[in-house]
Each structure stands twice: as C-alpha cells, then as structure tokens.
Amino acid sequence: MKNAWQANSGMSTISREPVLSKTTERGENDRLEYAVSSMQGYRANMEDAHAAVGDLDVSTATSFFGVYDGHGGPAVSMFCAKHFHLEVQKHPHFNDSLRIAVESAFFRMDQMMMTEEGRRELFEYSPANNANTNSTVKDMLLGCACVNVKRRPGPADVGSTACVALIRGNQIIVGNAGDCRCVISRNGQATVLTTDHKPSVPAERRRIENAGRSVVVTGGAGRIDGGIAVSRSIGDMRYKSNSRLTPALQALTCSPEIRVENITDETEFLVMACDGVWDVVLNQGLVEIIRNNMKSGMDLGKNCEAILDMCVEPPQPSVDNMTILLVRFKHKAPAAPDPSRADDGPHGKRKSKASMELGVMDNPNKAAPPTASAKAKPRRSF
Description:
The chain is an alpha+beta fold. The strands form four sheets. The chain has a seven-stranded antiparallel β-sheet. Strands 4, 5, 6, 7, 12 and 13 form a six-stranded antiparallel β-sheet that branches. It has a two-stranded antiparallel ribbon with strand order 10-11. Its EC number is 3.1.3.16.
C-alpha cells in the first residue's frame, strides 16, 4: 500500500488506526428482513450514508434501500439519504412505473442541491460546521463545498455515488450511479445487478471525451482530468459545466443505470455495499460468507458487522469508509399433504385447498450445512 497512511482522497485523510465502532440498523416486515451497518474505518471522516425503509409505501408494498458513498465530505451523501426515497415516492409514476420514478430521482438530487435551500442544507451537513474540525480544514471545506450561485450553483467538489434498490411484489428495481454495487444470491450463486462506473470503461470514456474532458490514469486508476475516479455521481458540479450538453451527457453524469430483476423462490438475499467493501472481497466470496453466517444462526445485523470487521483485517485492509446493507427475502414453503384427504385416482393423496393455501415462513437456520467453499473466507482482490 504505497503511502497509504499519508494518502489523501478529497477531504478524507487516512489514519493509522481504524475507527471500529459501527452504526447498525435492523428491520423487517412480512416480506423481508434487513440490516445495514456502517463503519468509519481508516478514514479521518465518515462520508457514507444510507437509507433503509422497509415500508416506504404500505398500499403498494414497496420497500426502499439505498447506499450513498460520499467524497469531498459527507454533505451530498447525507442529502441523498434524507431526500432520495421521498422524491421517488412523490413522483407521478411511483404507482405505475418505479423505473421512471427512480431514474428521475437521481436527476432531482442535483436539481434540488442547486437551489438556495439545497445549498443551505448542504452547508449544515459540512464538517466545517463541526466545532472539533480545525480552522485549516474548515477553510478548505468551506471553499470547496459550494460555489457562488451566479457562477455555478450547488456542490462543486463534493459528491456521492448512489445505489438504490426498491422491492415491490416479485421485482427488484435497482438504480446505480458510481461504484457502489448490488448483488443477489440465487441458490448460493452471486448475480451482479450493477455496473461499476469508472472513467476507463469504454462507453464512459467516450461520453467523457465527447464532453470535452479527458481520462488520465493516475495511481493505477482512470480519472476524469486526473481528478475524480468515478464517471457517474450525484453532485460534483464542476464536472457538469458543459452548457451545450444535457445532464445525462455531461462528463460526469448522475444518470443512473436501471435494472429490473424478478424475485424467484431461489432468490435468497440481496447485498449492497460501497466500494470500501468490494475493494477487498469478491462477489461470490461475499455471498458465501453471508450464507455461511446465516446458516450458523447469525442475525443479519451481526452478519453485516462481521463482514466490516473482516474487511479491515491485515495484511491488506480496506482504507475506505464501509457500509453494507443486507436484505433477506421471506419465502413461503408449500404445506405438507393433508393425510385426512385422499384421492382414489392414480396419483394417490392430494392436498386439500386449505392446505395448499397455507404456508410457513422460511427459516434460514434449517438450510443444508454449508459447503466447504462456504466455510472459507472469500478471496480478496487487491
């Protein structure tokens, strides 16, 4: 890890010792159970934020989950955690097209932060308002957080990647801008529902160059003009200044990738995490660890916390903030045959109508014992 302890990413310096305390939330309803846990880790500040709303809308049985990975400060990630799901719910197509509502909410975040009210709220979230922040860092934060309204309103050098998942009926609607990642487990096999939006990805590079910017490789990563290392995010308005282009075509865009996935009986759980987690574990490895922990009886909150602890273990720990969100789907198992009802035909006994409609909630602790691969730690990618 070259110069790891003296490195600086935006406004977040890296400390010698990690902050291991965690913030963990849990919840459930009759369709799913969820938990989310965050840890500051080796960063000097916590810039991640999240939102978990099991019952966003009861009438449509809609749940919302979002992970926001801030950079340059926590202002934009905190803004998204407060407003994003509400903007989805307010959208005229919330009831008939979640895809449209989710896509619109990404653009709404940029629009809302460029208003006077939005800028005031961002300022309140800035570490510059923290009495424990020294004066030099305060001046830096105040200088970069927002710019003059007449020049370029809104957050200039502070932003956030965003990955959200809405669950309604038998569908998962995922929206992603940046390098947070969403993965589902089907019978123990990882399926990735998002793309990591990096400047070096050919399609992203073409948009960046068409917008008049360049991709420069610095420190082994492609960066827009040698700066930011993601190609899609909310905020970061200094990369969205080409007046000839729509927001979707800017060098750095908030335009999300949207994916709709069906929930089947084989769909066990969904996991979303920021890149601080995915930097040190692979998709399949993380799925196996989660399944193994579930089968051993570990609840979802402890499962999330155990993964965060694992990610800061030597010899190559993650040096980023980390947030992980886990959703387990509750499936109804078919009822056992009713021995009091028999069919005289060639098929033998048949379930009664009542027994066919009766189901019990799935219990993950009764699953088969973990395989050898599930017992092992996931491979780590460095």
